[in-house]
Each structure stands twice: as structure tokens, then as C-alpha cells.
Amino acid sequence: MATAPTYFSDFLSDIRLSDSQISDLKTGHSTLRKRLLADEDLAPIIVSTFLQGSYRRSTAVKPKNGNKSDVDIIVVTNLDSENTTPEEALDMFIPFLEKHYEGKCRKQGRSLGISLSYVDLDIVPTSAPSETVQKELCSEELVSESSIEEFSSFFTESDESDWKDEPLLIPDREADSWDKTHPLEQIRWTVDKNKRCNSHYINVVKALKWWKKVMCPDMKHPKSYPLEHFIGDCCPDNIESVAEGVVLTLEKIVTDYPIKPFLADRGVPEHDVFGRLSDEDYGEFYQSVCDAAKIAREAFDCKDLHESVAKWRNLFGTMFPEPSTKESNSVNGFSKRTEKTTEIPRGRFA
Asked: 3-class SS at 213?
């Protein structure tokens, strides 16, 4: 088996968010959160703010074709969902946005979007959780930028924490109702899954997100989080390498899910993460997975490293390093490469 660890290390280093992109994200969300908490009209209704999405779960890959990085900010409020409509809740933020982000903001179905020259931001307001949960959501660790590896202490006591059993409610103005979501359970699940996969899980997600982004550019669905969720359901525990995780995840989809499945959302099991994915779109995705699984298996089983790396490059595109010369290959994947062999640092964007 050729797991090509140094090649995957370089590949993952090149597809993760760059230092400048991370800096842009930090600047964008830090400035926004400070402005929200300083706003005389909004500050009285804000309980806490914290980050969610692939940026927080350490599963983000760098954007392509001139697109910008994005980050989601959950704004926990003390608004009563029984007495405040979703439209009213979103409208409360409009004066703030017009003051600080005039011409760069828009009201969306469940959030408020801000498009800056260097980053996209989404404000996701929630209604008031219970008083106990409000206190838990003010945890310094939660409101910080802690990576999922650094989240361990917050989730160590999760079995005794009230937030685990209380999803947040976000405004769905199109349906005129408050909808359940559980971003903290999504983060907790990712932390736990990554541990069970010997810290390879988040990199399996990034590798397969990149595969879909680059090798299936015209395929709109599944979107980023539904794809990540599906990978999480299909990636086995105890994998020993990213290569193994990629192969087994793709093969699990092929063998077990020829028909679009119901994906129970983390913390809100009645929600189908694939609910907005049509059978036709899933069929297109499934066929692409079948093709990818075949290439991945050939690459993984190949005894010749040079040929194996060439096949991995065929799967992931030109960001995957080119194979070294035949003479420098070794079957264990540690070739005498002259190219960079960057190790993936631990932390949020590992």
C-alpha cells in the first residue's frame, strides 16, 4: 500500500487556507464582533458571539477562481422567538449594517451577508436559549478562536452541559419560522471524530472537498457542509493515513449509498442534511464518486510509489505533487524528493 505521506503532506499544505487568508478572516470577523458588541442598539440584545462553519471546524480549503474565504458568526441574542418574527429579528441588524457596511451587505434567508473585498461574512442571529445555556455560551473558550484540538476542555464536560440538549433557533424568513440548528454539536462531533481517526479525519475532509471543487467544477451539489457531513458518516474510525481515509470513504459511499440517503443532522436528527439535494443531483455526484473510488483504490494498492503518486495526482489534480523520478522511489512513500516536504502543523488549519 502506497500512502505517500510526504506527498499528501505537501498537498494538504497547499490546499489549506494561506496565512494571508487566515489573517483576512481574523480581521474581518474580529472587527465585526467588536462593532456588534459596541453598538448601542444591538449590544443590549446580544448574549454572546462565536464562530461556526468549516473555518471553525478546521475543514476549510482555500477558495478558487477569485472567490473569497468566508466565515460564519453566530450571534446569540435574548430575543423571544414567540414574540419576534424572523423578519423582525433580521431587520434589527439592518441599521448597524448600513452604518458600518453600506453597499456591502444583504439580507439572506437565514442570515445577513457582508461582502468585503477580502472576505465574506455571515451574521447568523439566534433567539434566546435558556438562562443556563446563555451562561455556557459565554465561555471564553467558545468565544475565542480556539482550534478544534484546543476545544477539548469545553467539550470534556459536554455530557453534563445543557447546551448539548438545546439546539439554537435561527430565523428562517422565507418559511416565517424559527428553525433549529446545532453548530456546537457539529463542532463537538468533529472534535471527537478527528480523535477517533488518529487526527486524520479533518484532512480527509479537506482532500475530498478539494477533489469535488477541482475535479467536478460544474457540480453544484452537495454543498460544502452536506459533503463534509456525508464524509463524516462514511469515513471509518482508526484510519492510519489520509490516503486510507479517502479510499475507504469513497468506497463506503459506492457500496452503501447508491440512492440518496437521509442524513440526520448533528444535534437535530429530524433535519435531513441532504434535504435540498435532488435525486438527480445526487445521481450525478454518486457517479463521480464511483469514478473517483476506482482511481483512489488503484493509487492506494499500487506497489510502485511513482505510479501511485501519479494516480493520486490524477484524482486530486495539479495541486497534488508530481511523482519523483523512478530511481528515488521507495515503497513506503518516503522518497528522496528534492521538492518541499512541508509538514502539516497541528492546530486549526492542520
From this structure: helix
pTM for the model stands at: 0.90
Q: b/e for 214-226, b at 16 or more Cβ within 10 A? A: bbeeeeebbebeb
At residue 214's C-alpha, the angle toward residues 213 and 215, to 5°, is 105
Which residues, other chains included, contact 120 with Cβ-Cβ below 8 Å and sequence gap of 6+?
68, 69, 70, 71, 113, 114
Residue 70 annotated as catalytic: yes
Query: Which one from 70, 120, 218, 265 is the annotated catalytic residue?
Result: 70
Which of 10, 24, 120, 122 does the annotation list as catalytic? 122
**80 a catalytic residue:** no
The alpha carbon of residue 282 and the mean position of all alpha carbons in its chain are separated, in whole angstroms, by 20
Nearest to 295 by CA among 309, 312, 277: 312
Amino acid at residue number 134: Q
- Could you confirm whether 272 is annotated as catalytic? no
Which region, left, alpha or beta, applies to residue 53 given φ > 0 means left and ψ of -120 to 50 means alpha? left
Q: pLDDT for 274-319, tens place per residue?
A: 999 999 999 999 999 999 999 999 999 999 999 999 999 999 999 9
Which three three-digit cell numbers place residue 163? Answer: 447546551
Q: What is the pLDDT of residues 107-138, one digit of tens each?
A: 999 999 999 999 999 999 999 999 999 998 99
Catalytic position from the list 24, 72, 120, 265: 72
